């Protein structure tokens, strides 16, 4: 049975379909009419922005990183906030959302992936929502037993529709009413905001599986894209996320835009979140090196290198990556040890340990530079003009410089 057969047997979900089609129409036609008739004030802008930020954070930090992946723990008030304002994203209850999302990770790029990108960008973006999920709740929720045990999650599932009405439409109208502009509140804080939240979330299922880099894993279609990150509160680093889904971060480095990570860190600093899960740096490095080696192996298959020559090169690459990982491990260990024990040491001992850390750092940097030089030399093979002579020269370069 293929994916098309699956959908042919699934009836259209008319409520979802009507909502997905009508909300943008109401936001567009109603919004243009309202602006022409009453103008657009800072009250509408603030209503739109506040509701957009609040509901988006509840989807990314709440529905996604907390409920679906359990990447940290948070207090009951924060959980309640996620459930109430998360419902206003109108992307279903946490139970349904997390169940679909866990299936997405488990069966990514296969017919059992609810938003399988191999069925096309539009299907992954929103097409899948047009069909009804006809499975009974017992079957559907068999992958969210932890959430089923949570009374607050069950409460949200039960009262999902009243919550949607109250927080998606009534609340922004009341905020608008407070400034004498209730209809503006409903159109911008309600309708336009929900359309924006929908499509920025949907981008993760479509664009983040189509465009961008794959530095951590070549096993699936998930991709990292820096330009998608600001639009999605940091969820654009999707290749990292698929490889290390338990990590509370999606943008790993401090300079990568990940507003959700910053929000979770702010919660931690104020005592509202704890037990933030971080992937050890050594595993991240290992994943990156494995991807680089895998890429080279693919290129080697297309190059003129003989099997024997390629085996020799691979042995060098394995030795190089092992050395780099060992140097990284030693540096990380020295740093951790220094942080853990520096307060107990005398000035002399501290100075000595300072030197040890510097030495480990220098060794790691040297190993990294060698690895990068090797990658540069090897990457020359990827050019279409690479002939057997160039291939050989590139390999010779590596041996000549005795990189490893
Ligand atoms: Zn994905
Ligand atoms: Zn995820």
Written account of the structure:
Helices cover 66% and strands 1% of the residues. By secondary structure, the chain is mostly helical. The protein folds into two domains: 3-217 and 226-274, no CATH class; 281-400. Helix 3 (42-68) packs across helix 4 (76-87). 35% of the residues are buried. Bound molecules: zinc ion (2 copies).
Provide a short characterization of the protein structure.
It is built from 17 helices and two strands.
List the helices and strands and how they pair.
Layout: H1 3-8, H2 14-38, H3 42-68, E1 73-74, H4 76-87, H5 94-106, H6 121-125, H7 137-140, H8 145-148, H9 151-158, H10 160-178, H11 182-205, H12 238-243, H13 259-269, E2 273-274, H14 281-302, H15 307-341, H16 347-379, H17 388-400
Bound molecules: zinc ion (ZN) (2 copies).
One zinc ion is lined by residues 64, 68-69, 101, 105, 241, 245.
Task: From the structure above, extract its key features.
single chain; 404 residues; mainly alpha; 2 domains; two-stranded antiparallel ribbon; 66% helix; disordered N terminus; binds zinc ion
